[in-house]
Amino acid sequence: MTDLANKNETVSLEEMFQSLEEIVSQLEQADVSLEDSFTLYHRGMNMLKECNEKIDTVEKKIKVLDEDGKEQDF
Amino acid sequence: MQNVYSVKQINAYIKNMFAQDYMLNRIYIKGEVSNCKYHSSGHIYFSLKDESAAIACIMFAGQRSGLSFRLTEGQQVIVLGSISTYERGSTYQLYAKEIILDGAGLLYQKFEALKKELEDMGMFASEYKRPIPQFAKRVGIVTAPTGAAIRDIINVSGRRNPYVQLILYPALVQGSGAVPSIISGIQALEAAGVDVIIVGRGGGSIEDLWAFNEEAVARAIFNCKVPVISAVGHETDTTIADYVADLRAPTPSAAAELAVYEYLTVEAQLKDYESRIRRQMVSNLQISRKQLEQYQFRLRYLNPRQKLNEKRQLTVDIDGKLRQLMSMKLERSRHSLAIHIANLKRLSPLEKLNQGFSYIENTAHHSVKSIQNIEVDDELRIYMTDGRVTAKVTAKEKEEYHD
Hints:
The structure holds two protein chains of two kinds. In chain A, 62% of the residues lie in helices and 8% in strands. Chain A is built from three helices and two strands, in the order αααββ. A two-stranded antiparallel ribbon of chain A has the order 1-2. The termini of chain A are far apart. Mean pLDDT of chain A is 80; it is low at 1-8. Chain B is an alpha/beta fold. In chain B, helix 4 packs parallel to helix 8 and helix 5 packs parallel to helix 6. The model of chain B has no long low-confidence stretch (mean pLDDT 89). Chain B has a five-stranded mixed beta barrel. In chain B, strands 7-6-8-9-10 form a five-stranded parallel sheet, with helices on both faces. Chain B has a three-stranded antiparallel sheet with strand order 11-12-13. Chain B is built from eleven helices and 13 strands. Classes of the chains: A mainly alpha, B alpha/beta. The interface between A and B is large, with 35 and 37 residues.
């Protein structure tokens, strides 16, 4: 489980969007089994959740980087 | 009468005056190049002019080492040379030994030279350009902490996505300290692990923007492992930094648009994915349900009980048909029997006896129809309706019946 969590950390939003696109197109295929549909559905929903978590929706104030490499408020 | 001189004498005298003048022998003149002609002999003819005056100039082929660029119309130049006369036409002109670009022109010359040098080294090649991340979370900015550029970047970024972290490295962007300041900004932000760096400043003169034309800055951008977006001055200003950067933004605002993704668009995209996945799932479920119904229907249809019922029905049907056919046949037989009975009845000799006829046979039980078979004294048997008699023939005579 930690493996999976770590893996998710490295997956970028771009890659997730690409995966979502693939999931949708797989779901749209006529010959996908119901069981696979469910698997895809759950994967898609989990990925959406992760995407939302990835977009850290905390408003950021601009920081200033000083000579020592420390970040301070602007 | 005073002395009379020839034209040649007077022109030589004037020429000598120029030649003896200390200042005119080595003089710097600045002005704008016009009527510039490269002659096939290698000499260059042109004029230097300013607002109200012009002077003819010539640079002989032998002096061409004093010119390091191609002279073109409109250039601001400083020409070192001597002024002398041309005796044949009694005109004076400037004989140029050295020509350099003046002020901005000089910088332009340096710019072109560095651009060519770096281009030849491959520093502008597209295969070195790093892609700008589509969803940067931390955006580094190297620019002045005061000024239009940082304000524009903050405004645009805040409007597009307030959740992206901007990190400013306050840098000097003009003057003597600008080059090292910009370079350490790029390196510090790279070390801080930002996703993309914007390097730039607002508009200004070519001198103001000059730090972005320095080779050291170009190399810092080139060596930076984080993608760099350049945003120097206005759209029309192009610097070496723009050529070497991974992406050139025409202005600081545009750089912010390129570096900071729009939150609402991504949110809408996610919503779209969600609704598509949900809709497709519902649709797939419905399809499966419909298939299930179809199989149920077919199974019911194929049930053995159903088959049995069908067979039972069939036997009932056949039974009915058989009975019907049988009774029809019986009816028909009964009918034809009645006809036969009627026919028989019609032909029965007994009927005839009823009507007063009699049946006669001889002793040998043969029917007697003609008198020729009978002799007198023969015994005959006569059948009537209610019995028979035996009689003896007493006479016989022939009779003709005309019927």
